[in-house]
Design brief:
- The protein is of the alpha/beta class and about 400 residues long.
- It has two domains: about 120 residues, Aspartate Aminotransferase, domain 1, CATH 3.90.1150.10; about 250 residues, 3-Layer(aba) Sandwich (Aspartate Aminotransferase, domain 2).
- About 35% of the residues lie in helices and about 15% in strands.
- The protein is built from 14 helices and 15 strands.
- The strands form four sheets. A seven-stranded mixed sheet has the order 4-10-9-8-7-5-6, with helices on both faces. A four-stranded antiparallel sheet has the order 11-12-15-14.
- β14 and β15 form a beta hairpin.
- α2 packs antiparallel against α11, α5 packs parallel to α6 and α12 runs parallel beside α14.
- It is globular, with a radius of gyration of 22 Å.
- The site of pyridoxal-5'-phosphate (PLP) has 13 residues, from α5 and α6.
Length: about 400
């Protein structure tokens, strides 16, 4: 059903999450459909950063490690993330990039299955996940096997030590069935590590109910932690005392300030830490997470599905021949994004950005639009599609300047 402007405004007026938009600073006139790649700036972040830099660092200097609780940040933030992913507070720590976090957890996990030789993942998984797993396989003497999503279950045999999957596909937004695949992996005797980079903060997650062993995720996408924000690591409590991660630094030691010569792992998730916490990045991540204060994830999910449905309906009604839908049509199988295929997707996205609609391009042919329910409304989607229609009908995207590839797409 195609809604006119007044109908879209009415949906925004009735939106129970509309209050959250005031928590963000968004440039005037821009419709930001890339919060799944870099979350928008929370209004509270600059002042919180200034306080951490000028007050805590500048004023209290080194005493802030104790006084401002800097050393506790990975655990404190981990507990806040745990609440958003359905884990226990003591099962999550924040820190490291997602890539490094994945390395530490995957290497630790395969050591729990010493007689199995395979790390299994999905073909077309996010590149860093595959590259890191290649490295883990290499140093642990295992083999990385990748299969298409529909072949994962049949590939789970008694030689698989660890299954590593990204819950929501970064290109298409397709959701994998976390509970089912975790159950199947466990039935085959394997452990499972989920990458939540495109799920956490957008979907309702319950890692405990799914029986997940391990998870990693990203701090700068839906968590709004800022460019290069630290990621996080989750290990189920039942594994925590057996598991040993390979980057054994002093902050993961049982007693860092005893300065002993021999490594002894901290109890619980503390052992996943390595070096001095990246305080400024963690402070910004914590400010990002506060944008979820009082927010019900069921409402976020409901709105995300509705925004996606509206976007698809409008594009298909107004540009019936222009694109192929790359995302699942069924909202229940789709994360918080809509991806459209077009041979000239790159140029179209560039022309859209110039017109104030920021999406992104994923090779080879995907125009990707992230839908962040905390700061997008229904009228925004209507306007974004209006501008897309104008670009497609005028053909302006064919101008040579839009074809010039930049480093970050
Ligand atoms: C964004 C993303 C990452 C990011 O990894 P970095 O180490 O932060 O660069 C990793 N995995 C997936 C699936 C992602 O979507």
């Amino acid at each position: 059903m195609i809604l006119d402007k007044a109908a879209l405004d009415a949906r925004d007026a009735a939106d129970p999450l509309a209050f959250a938009r005031a928590r963000f600073r968004l440039p005037e006139g821009v419709i930001y459909l890339d919060g799944n790649s870099l979350g928008a700036l929370p209004k509270a972040t600059p002042a919180r950063m200034a306080e951490a830099v000028e007050g805590e660092w500048g004023g209290d200097l080194i005493t802030s490690w104790n006084k401002a609780g800097w050393m506790e940040l990975p655990h404190r933030i981990g507990a806040q993330i745990a609440a958003l992913i359905g884990a226990s507070p003591e099962e999550v720590v924040a820190g490291d990039s997602t890539s490094v976090a994945l390395f530490k957890l995957a290497a630790a996990a395969v050591r729990l299955r010493p007689r199995r030789s395979v790390i299994l993942s999905e073909r077309g998984n996010f590149p860093t996940d595959l590259y890191v797993l290649e490295g883990v396989a290499d140093i642990t003497g295992r083999r990385l096997q990748t299969v298409d999503a529909d072949a994962i279950e049949t590939a789970l045999n008694d030689d698989v030590a660890l299954l590593v999957l990204t819950h929501v596909d970064y290109r298409t937004g397709r959701i994998l069935d976390m509970k089912r695949l975790t159950d199947r992996a466990h039935a085959a005797g394997a452990l499972v590590l989920w990458d939540l980079s495109h799920s956490a903060g957008a979907l309702e997650l319950d890692l405990s109910a799914a029986g997940a062993d391990f998870a990693v995720g990203c701090g700068y996408k839906y968590f709004n932690g800022g460019p290069g924000a630290p990621g996080y690591m989750m290990a189920a409590r039942r594994h925590q005392e057996q598991i040993r991660q390979p980057v054994t630094g002093w902050i993961g030691h049982a007693a860092p300030f005893a300065f002993e010569d021999r490594y002894a792992p901290a109890s619980g998730m503390g052992r996943f830490l390595t070096g001095t916490p990246a305080v400024l990045g963690l402070v910004a991540l914590e400010a990002g997470l506060r944008t979820f204060d009082g927010v019900d994830m069921a409402m976020v999910r409901q709105k995300s599905k509705a925004l996606g449905q509206l976007f698809i309906d409008l594009v298909e009604a107004r540009l019936p021949e222009a694109f192929t839908l790359a995302s699942p049509r069924d909202a229940a199988a789709r994360g918080s994004q809509v991806s459209l295929r077009h041979p000239d997707a790159y140029a179209i996205v560039q022309a859209l950005i110039e017109a104030g609609v920021v999406g992104d391009f994923r090779a080879p042919d995907i125009a990707r639009f992230g839908l962040t329910p905390l700061y997008l409304g229904f009228a925004d989607i209507g306007q974004a599609v209006d501008r897309l229609v104008r670009i497609m009908e005028s053909g302006i995207w064919r101008e040579a300047r839009f074809a010039v590839r930049q480093a970050v797409t």
